[in-house]
Amino acid sequence: xxxxxxxxxxxxxxxxxxxxxxxxxxxxxxxxxxxxxxxxxxxxxxxxxxxxxxxxxxxxxxxxxxxxxxxxxxxxxxxxxxxxxxxxxxxxxxxxxxxxxxxxxxxxxxxxxxxxxxxxxxxxxxxxxxxxxxxxxxxxxxxxxxxxxxxxxxxxxxxxxxxxxxxxxxxxxxxxxxxxxxxxxxxx
Length: 188
Hints:
The protein has helices at residues 3-6, 13-30, 37-44, 48-54, 58-69, 72-76, 83-99, 102-115, 117-128, 133-139, 143-163, 170-183. By secondary structure, the protein is mainly α.
């Protein structure tokens, strides 16, 4: 459910914000696997049925939390296109992962999506399809090359989030962009 859909009749912006903030804080405190709708509801001061009325699953809630923490504007505003812009995009992304629970949320969503159909649908709709143009637009290459760049970057970042999140630093951002551009046949 998108933020816009979620703000329909009967939904207050204040409650909406409290729920998203409580969900992010819970992951920061206990991690994604241990985060529960009950815990979010208690921290936000709402009933869990309110959350389930607005988000059909834990994954759907956390897709929206992630999208708020890792907004397109936080990643690309004014950075241009091409190799240097891709490196800057990744540096911004990795900083968000260090400073917020966004990386832990994404790692949890990826793990859930592997085993749960509702989570897979939420991740595919909200993070794969809904955000894939971010890297492709910044890559500023042919559509085919941009798709390869996007696939290499997303797959590698997701793998590192699960296996070695501490390695997501500025040096790795530059290395990953070079690797992705090379895989796409783009000379840097």
